[in-house]
Amino acid sequence: MTTHRIRVGIDVGGTFTDAVAVDATTLDLLGQVKVPTTHHHEDGVAHGIVEALDRLLEQTGHAPEDVAFLAHGTTQATNALLEGDVTTVGMLGIGTGAGAAFTRRLAALAKLDLTPGKRFPLVYAHVSDPGDRAAVERAVDEVVRGGAQVLVATEPFSVDRPEGEDAVRKVAAERGLPMTAAHDITSLYGIQKRTRTAAVNAAILPKMFATADLVDASITKAGITAPLMVMRCDGGVMSLDEMRRRPLLTVLSGPAAGVAGALMRERVSEGVFLETGGTSTDISVVRRGKVAVRHVPLLGRSSYLSALDVRTVGVGGGSMIRLSGGKITTVGPRSAHIAGLPYACFATAEDLAGARVATVRPLPEDAEDHVVLDAAGGRYALTLTCAANALGRVPEGDFARADREVARAAVTPLAALLGTDVDTAAGRILDAGVAQVRSVVDSMIDEYRLDKDTVLLVGGGGGAASVTPHLAATTGLQGRIAAHSEVISPIGVALALVREQIERIIPGAGQEDILAVRSEAEQAVIAQGAVADAVEVEVTVDPQTSTVRAVATGATELRTQDRAHRADDAERLRLAAASLKVPENRVDILAGTPAYTVYGTEQRRRLRGVRHPVRVVDADGVVRLHAPDARVRTTVVGSAQQTLAALVDGATAYGDGGVRAPALRLLIGSRIADLSGVLDPGPLLALARTEMEGRPGDEPVVAIVEERP
After folding, report:
1. How far apart are the two ends of the chain, measured CA to CA in Å?
2. What was the pLDDT predicted at 1?
3. How far apart are CA 588 and CA 598, in angstroms?
4. CA–CA separation, 614 and 632 (whole Å)
5. Strand, coil or helix: what is 455?
6. Mean of the pLDDT values across residues 45-70?
7. From CA 262, how far away is CA 274, in angstroms rounded?
8. What distance in Å separates the CA atoms of residue 433 and residue 320, rounded to the nearest whole number?
9. In 3-state terms, what secondary structure has residue 602?
10. What is the CA radius of gyration of the chain?
11. Could you tell me whether strands 281-287 and 290-291 are parallel, antiparallel, or unpaired per DSSP bridges?
12. How many CB atoms lie within 10 A of CB 198?
């Protein structure tokens, strides 16, 4: 029996439930299991979660008390919305006069499509005075008679005055009715968007409540004492209680789990993550060590749900080749899975004897241009994975690895039809499939202004080898397949940090306002189990929308990370030089802390003049921060305020667009404090002071300053 504590991540998919155990200290993968997802069991998916956990503990030789962290991701909320399997919502609009007109219009949500041919199930009642308890009770009775099993209360400006919505909540609690108050979902103004988001949240409450209770009870019965966490759609995790309040945050958490795995396990700081399955590829961005998120649409309209910005392309490892006029026209979106056919590259040489090319319709409505092989062993689909194996692009030990000679035999009949050799034919297949992915990757790199000199393509998912290596080869970008790519999602769940985002619209936000939002976010993750000393908060102030946003992340235990590998000085220098794309003798060490070394060089470019790019490399040899042109200054906590004030003052721009303080990042202890989202020098320096509170006066602080264009 090992004494190491473990972190467990469980990813509940539509077909299978995958679970992994990760060493809590080294973060090494210790074991993985796969069980069928138990949708139709009397305990639902909870049964599969417990079954996977039991097998995992047995496989790794751990006891329930060894589990330091347990989290699961689920597609349940996503599937409920996709399938229209939601509860009828009773909406209580609150207000008089002009306010009543705004809320009464919200009844039109019942006209929006939830799924094709199915409207969002909503009944509406109005309450003029929420202080009139009898009126509230009559409104609740009205919507319940209309079929509502869950409530939403909404009132103009409830983010500032929540008393009306809270009065409805009190009655709902007494009736045993689940309820979402619109101000619980977001503190941003915009009653239509806020209410729309709250209504969708309410629609999935009962189903998610039932699952949460079953999973919680099952985990407790299994002897697990670690708090159960749930994957969010923005790459973090939340407590089970928080999930009960805002289950909507689990929508799209599947792709978020994969990119969380790339961020935490692969330590990507600037790059694109491509999670490739059998049918599609989900593409997302990591910029400066953070996942890219955005407000995603719900019911075909904008919402306040912040989720991973993921773009899906209908190209995966099982995508079928399409042929017309003697040429490959495209690949996908139909896959071998949809056609019900095995991959040709996973057959045997004997099975492929006498193979000849034919074209079929995978589904009746499809064009008859999808390539298959009719051979001695039956009918097989020729897929992107077959082409990747034929070219030797699938590494040994990979989930999608096939016998290369068999894969080449599978491509041979098509090559003959095209009048070329196997390598050329396989290359054309990959070109056709990867071109669709590349167009999306290129647009996301431009949209998020990623540093093309440092962008890393990381492939995850069982079909990663069919897309990422060829994409890297054709773009010239760095690329690799994530370790254990087939279980990158549960690894991401196991390694994810507790996360909370607080947003406020505060016109003319001052220093105290910004610090208050920061504190609220920090306290929210601590309340969900994050260790106070492990919390990091990123604050962004958007002067155009007057939005103050604080994103807090934290671990549920202090991570010592006593890893077996530590990069020495020579290795870190080599990695920095490779990232900077200059010889090692042109790289300077600019600063250092016990956790990080800062490297830089000088670049002279005809159009851009002289630049000073900077790289921050951690003790593991991972480039944690890229700065295309920055100044670096070392100080100590005791004198940092004066040093930072001078740096910020010297780099602040003044113009028609207003005051623009520089982008400031601080290296303090094991943390990289990113303060680049604040443009006003006063609040910027106040946040810097907060980051250093309680630290010894002689502790080193490294400031990295980038002037804004």
Report:
1. 58
2. 40
3. 9
4. 8
5. coil
6. 89
7. 10
8. 9
9. coil
10. 27
11. antiparallel
12. 29
Residue 524 has pLDDT above 80, yes or no: yes
- Residue 347: which pLDDT band, with cuts at 50, 70 and 90? very high
Residue 688 has pLDDT above 60, yes or no: yes
What does the buried/exposed string (b/e) look like for 546-569 if buried means 16 or more CB atoms within 10 Å of the residue's CB? Answer: ebbbbbbbbbbeebeeeeeeebee
Q: What contacts 436, CB < 8 A, 6 or more positions away?
A: 313, 314, 315, 330, 331, 332
Whether the per-residue pLDDT at 14 is higher than 60: the answer is yes
Cα 698 to Cα 635, 669, 673, distances in angstroms: 9, 12, 18
What six digits make up the tokens of 121? 């199930």
CA proximity to 533, closest of 684, 686, 695 = 695
Q: ω before 333 within 30° of 0 (cis)?
A: yes
- What is the pTM for the complete model shown? 0.82
Task: Give 21's DSSP letter.
Answer: E
C-alpha 286: how far from chain center: 9
Q: What is the pLDDT of residues 127-185, one digit of tens each?
A: 999 999 999 999 999 999 999 999 999 999 999 899 999 999 999 999 999 999 999 88
Q: What is the pLDDT of residues 173-225, one digit of tens each?
A: 999 999 999 998 888 888 999 999 999 999 998 888 888 888 888 888 888 88
Q: Which two tokens stand for residue 117?
A: 């041919």
d(CA 40, CA 14) in angstroms, rounded, equals 12
Angle at 263 between CA 260 and CA 269, to 5 degrees: 145
Amino acid 44 reads G
Closest CA to 467 of 285, 284, 316: 316
- DSSP string for 217-247: HHHHHTT--SPEEEE-TTS-EEEHHHHHH-G
Average pLDDT over the chain, rounded to an integer: 89
